[in-house]
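thread: overnight batch results

M.L. [08:02]
morning all. the overnight job finished for the chain we discussed friday. pasting input first so we're all looking at the same thing
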Amino acid sequence: MAATTTSAAAAVAFSLPSLPGRPPRRRRLHAPCRLRAASTAAPPTPDLSIQLSPRSSPPASTSTNGAASSAGPPVAASLARDRAEDLQAEARAMARAAGATVYSPELLASRYGSRPFKVALRAAEVLSKLGAFALKVLLDERRGESFSARRRARAVELRTILTRLGPTFVKIGQGLSTRPDLCPPEYLEELAELQDSLPTFPDEEAFACIERELGFPLDSIYSAISPSPIAAASLGQVYKARLKYSGKLVAVKVQRPGIEDAIGQDFYLLRGLGFLINKYVDIVTSDVVALMDEFGRRVFQELNYVQEGQNARRFKKLYADKQDVLVPDIFWDYTSAKVLTMEWIEGVKLNQQAAIESQGLKVLDLVNIGIQCSLRQLLEYGYFHADPHPGNILATPEGKLAFLDFGMMSETPEDARVAIIGHVVHLVNRDYEAMARDYYALDFLEPDVDVAPIVPALKSFFDDALNATVSELNFKTIVDGLGAVLYQYPFNVPAYYALILRSLTVLEGLALYADPNFKVLAASYPYFAKRLLTDPNPYLRDALIELLFKDGKFRWNRLENLLVQGRQDREFAAKDALQPVLKLLLGPDGEELRVLVVKEAVRVTEAITIGALIDSYNAAPEFLKPLISNGNPGGPFKLSDVEREQMIELRDRVFRIWGLLRSSDNFDPSLLQPIAQVLQEPEARVLGSRVAGGVTQRLAARLLQQLLRTPPVPGSSM
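M.L. [08:03]
and the structure it wrote out:
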């Protein structure tokens, strides 16, 4: 649905006969100029290539979805009325899609089980083409001809085969194009062409489908429509049009004719293949039939364009609240199961770096927007775009990131969302036993599976990979390494996780085009840090405590790093930082944490107090220093150089952390008010007295140590 920037121009007009019950004929007086998808080439002159016959002027008022409204002033319609009209239009679209096919293994069996000859012919076609290709690749390997040029030729051949085999195998190829863990680079590049370089079907069939689905002649719906598609996808093709009654530019997606039958038959075959793999191929531990069913359900959902429109609406509600994310509106009065009409978005595909930079934009800035939005999708709300290939993500001239094509969506279970964040914490801590246990929460393992044998495999891989920091890892390294572990042990990878890998791998691939040194994990750190510092979820709260404490000691460097990273997230709120930990600290279940905090609070208070005294001593006149230090040339306290440096370092780090909080954009001194209120609680008073007692004991010991120390004899060595 991307397009180049267009300019309005005169179009060719022609009249249409108004014969009832018959689709209007389309007569072109001049060869039209084809509209094209976004590119670096100069934009075409005409706005739309065909001008349909003029009708009466549109009504004075239109609803939010572009349909004519019955009455009322043109601008003064209330939001409530607009929303009601939009819901009514959506209900009408749902009624038009009431007969849409839903994926069902039983339905496939009843429909194609009685057609053995047709199924056998299709099976022979698929097996002969893919089998011949596999044989060629095997011979290349045997002959030692698997060099890059040969792989490139084979990749082109595979793309051609998948295209000829039809939509189901195009979808499979699209999935493989985002799996660098499965395919060599040459295959990834060629299969990526499947995203938008697909054959079209006749325009007359598309226009007839629009009229049949919406129940009106074409010229009564649009004042103009492109004569040929501006993009072709695996399930349909897209036209650019202007709505007659609102004048708005829209993208009209029309489904390929006969696609339900073709896809249904292919999934019937794939399920049969899955049964054979489950029964005879021991190396595959996952339930292949279940994976095929999950894939089939998602593909059939894509065939219902009303469902896709509802997906787009939900996605927009959740994520388009950010100023740099754009999601098109749906025009429900012009949408059905096989026709989807949505707002036209001007933009450039995210993999067209030169075109993006020519608009004064930076690819990496846009990729970072995509990463932050994806993290919100995957880990905050759990509802995510499962097909984010370059053709579905556009850079707008305003620098926004536009998401398109909401046919394939997925959801991350709530338990899995927090488990993923905890998994990152365990990775940072190199706690491989905890990482292995995370796989229960992620639904990778059944509860009765022993994770003990998995721990050494994780340790072996990540100890080698983590020679640098975690942020230096790229996502492909993790996918490759975990993939090797997953295949060795009885893992059952959930469908949502495979789609998450696909989503993040695509974004990393786009970033690597612009910057070979880009690291997705490093770009993701601010989001993880913000969630750990501010999220009240008990699992994340415990993960934060686990990150900050080790062997009974508080790791101030970790807290400082979290604050530095968290501040880079625009949604980070200083007032929320550490509030979940504070509530646990003073709650009934926080005794173990209170013991650690009291111990650390005593250390910090001592460091600040002694640091202040050392600073005062250093600022004192020289003649007073011997009196203050009791004649000790090393200073007023009996401290080794190492101990003194550690105290000063601790004090300075605490002050830096406080400075980070104070310098946050949304810092407000009133953020201390909830803490002050909590400190009025009885438990807090007890905690405070324990801290005060500990500090008093430590300082008293220091003072006695100083007073009882024997002054040095002049001329003697110390």
